[in-house]
Structure formats: structure tokens, C-alpha cells
Amino acid sequence: MTCVAVISDPDRSIKMSFTSNMLYPRAAILDPRMTLTLPPHITAATGMDALTHAVEAYISLQKNPMSDAYSWQAIRIIRANLMNVVKNGGDREGRLALANASTMAGIAFSNAMVGVVHNLGHATGGVCHVAHGVAMNIYLPVGLEYDLPKAGEMIGELLMPLGGPDVYAHTPAEQRAVKVISLIREMRDELYEICKLPRTLKEANVDRAKLPDIAAAALKDGASMYNVEEIDYNDALALIEKAYE
Ligand SMILES: [Zn+2]
Q: Rounded to the nearest whole angstrom, what is the distance from the C-alpha of residue 170 to the centroid of ligand 1?
């Protein structure tokens, strides 16, 4: 459903992403039967990947009203369904809701692209073979904290689809972005309880000695081009160390 593909080159320990309009399908069929047997931790990891697509598209330099609309609904639907489906994999309505949300998040990021979370995630996948969705789960909060000074207002707007109208209304405007990040951390804690989805690089058994290699690989990944904040080697290494434990 997207214009992006990622190809792993294990010999060089890199993941290369590229985009082309030729990658779009003529049609996509969303059938929840296709994901009914997906185990809980992969359901959780792919759900957090879809959430990251929607969130990063919403704060990207290339965001636009079309991508915003898709991001918004994707976030709302993932928040409403992911925990239930991870706990009860046979929930067909929940599976279909997540398939719709994942598709909408894909449409959003095909328009707006992603950012630092995907940048670090591709590098971590290439160097340490951490699964993509797991890497997204690990980096999403630290990536948002990094973008907070420039994207605080946009992140704060996401409290409505992520927390619902009551939480949004009861949180003062200047605290909404921080609340969004804390709700994402709560989701990760809940997923860790249910299916041990790693929240840190340490929990994903990443060798600490590899962190500089991940930072070096991140510099060569194009996803950071669309991030509101620039990222150099030292920024990347600091973020990766923050995500370690
Ligand atoms: Zn992704």
C-alpha cells in the first residue's frame, strides 16, 4: 500500500530503503483472515510500526492536510484495538480495524514520509538484526522527545486520537506533547507485560559495543531527511544510548 520498499543487504549489514510510484498496487484487499494466526509479539510489533508510521507522518517536514487526516484516524484506531487484538488474536473485527489503520498509516507516510525513528530503526535492523517493528517500539518515545522542541505543538495535537477527548480536554495545552509520549510508554509497558515486546535495545539483546556502528549506519539512511530536527552522528549516538536501557 506504500511507495516504499526496504531491502536488506546482510553482507554489508545495511537496510536500504527506496521509493517509487511503481510500487503502488492497483488494488489492495484487507482481509482479517490473513493475520488471524499472527502471534501476539508480531501483532504487537507490526501494530507499533503502523503507529510509528502515522505519528512520524504527522510531524514530518513533508506533512500535509491529506496525510494528517490518514494519520489521525490510524492513530485513533490502533489505540482502540491493538491491546485487545494482541490479547485475543482471534478478534476478527479488531484485526480488520488494524488492517485498515495500517493501510491508512501507509497512505499517510507515502505522502509525508517518516523521520528519526525509522532512521534509527533501519540502522539498528541492518547492524543488529532487530526486527523492524521491535525497533520502532524501542525508538518511538526517544525519537519524539528529540523532536519535542520543534514539533511539540504537533505532537500535542495527537493527544486527541491517542488519549481521547476527556484526556485531551483535561491536559493543559503545554503538557499535551509530554502526555502523548507518556501514553506511548504506557502502551509499551502493557505490550511488554502481555508478550515481552522489547522496550529497550538491551531487552532486544543488542550488544552495547555495536551502538557506534548503528549511529554510523543511521547517517547513511534517508529517513532523517524529513525529520523536523537535523541529526548528526553525535545526536544519533546519544539517542541510541538513551534507547539502550
Ligand atoms: Zn515502519
A: 31
- Distance (angstroms) between ligand 1 centre and the Cα of 163 equals 22
Res 21: pLDDT: 93
**How far, in Å, is the centroid of ligand 1 from the Cα of 209?**
25
Q: Report how far ligand 1's centroid is from the alpha carbon of 153 (Å).
A: 23
> What H or E segment, with its residue span, contains residue 19?
strand 14-19
| Helical H segments across the chain, by residue range | 40-59, 65-87, 92-112, 116-128, 132-157, 159-170, 176-195, 211-218, 233-242
**In this structure, which CATH number among 3.40.1280.10, 3.30.43.10, 1.20.1090.10, 3.30.70.590 belongs to the domain 42-242?**
1.20.1090.10
CA of residue 103 to ligand 1 center, whole Å: 12
- 87 Cα to the center of ligand 1, angstroms: 22
Question: Per-residue pLDDT tens for 193-224?
Answer: 999 999 999 999 999 999 999 999 999 988 89
Tell me: the pLDDT tens digits for 30-83?
999 999 999 999 999 999 999 999 999 999 999 999 999 999 999 999 999 999
